[in-house]
Amino acid sequence: MPMLVYEYVSNGTLYDHVHKRNGKGPLSLGLRLKIAVETAESLAYLHYSTSMQIVHRDVKATNILLDEKFTAKVSDFGASKLVPEDQDQLSTLVQGTMGYLDPEYLQSNTLTEKSDVYSFGVVLVELLTSRRALSFDKPEEERSLANVFVCAVEDGLLRHILDEEVVKDGHFETVEKVADLAKRCLSLKGRERPTMRDGKRAGRIANFFKAFRRPYDDGR
């Protein structure tokens, strides 16, 4: 009988940690950057390193698992689509999670790798703010984290929406670079978003941060 065997990932989901569920504590800025880089590398692999491009189609905090060393593992490929070599987009019924869904894909039913990029941008914003991607208990204009974040950055109010753990680390220049990357990922037009290869530039940010951050004795 054919069986799928998955690695047991013991540390829950990114959502649990960012939103402090199930007894999970806050994440340092260093760990948030590490998780962002590893997620970007995973998506870049799907987009460019397989025999046929794979678009995940449901990138979100609950689909990013963390092991005991906080290594990020992108999971749940039930909504994923293979893109034939001679195509760069697919016409398909919209599937994904509200709050993370690419608005261009939502309107056109046309799926591209840039749809994953948009969702990755929402995850980046969650990492910076510890706010939920969609909050129905807020006024309509404040429900979408992506919209709130982009407006805050454009109005020079980034500090006002950052998580206190991010602020406490005190490296605002690093945070601004990550915020700029997230804002580009959240462009309403897919062609204006970076590719996941460009998204891996977040790794440079992480390396820059590691050069002067204090060591974390407990791995956090």
TrEMBL record:
<protein>
    <recommendedName>
        <fullName>Protein kinase domain-containing protein</fullName>
    </recommendedName>
</protein>
<feature type="domain" description="Protein kinase">
    <location>
        <begin position="1"/>
        <end position="209"/>
    </location>
</feature>
<dbReference type="InterPro" id="IPR045274">
    <property type="entry name" value="WAK-like"/>
</dbReference>
<dbReference type="Pfam" id="PF00069">
    <property type="entry name" value="Pkinase"/>
</dbReference>
<dbReference type="InterPro" id="IPR011009">
    <property type="entry name" value="Kinase-like_dom_sf"/>
</dbReference>
<dbReference type="GO" id="GO:0005524">
    <property type="term" value="F:ATP binding"/>
</dbReference>
<dbReference type="GO" id="GO:0004674">
    <property type="term" value="F:protein serine/threonine kinase activity"/>
</dbReference>
<dbReference type="InterPro" id="IPR001245">
    <property type="entry name" value="Ser-Thr/Tyr_kinase_cat_dom"/>
</dbReference>
<dbReference type="InterPro" id="IPR000719">
    <property type="entry name" value="Prot_kinase_dom"/>
</dbReference>
<keyword id="KW-0547">Nucleotide-binding</keyword>
<dbReference type="GO" id="GO:0007166">
    <property type="term" value="P:cell surface receptor signaling pathway"/>
</dbReference>
<dbReference type="GO" id="GO:0005886">
    <property type="term" value="C:plasma membrane"/>
</dbReference>
<dbReference type="InterPro" id="IPR008271">
    <property type="entry name" value="Ser/Thr_kinase_AS"/>
</dbReference>
<keyword id="KW-0067">ATP-binding</keyword>
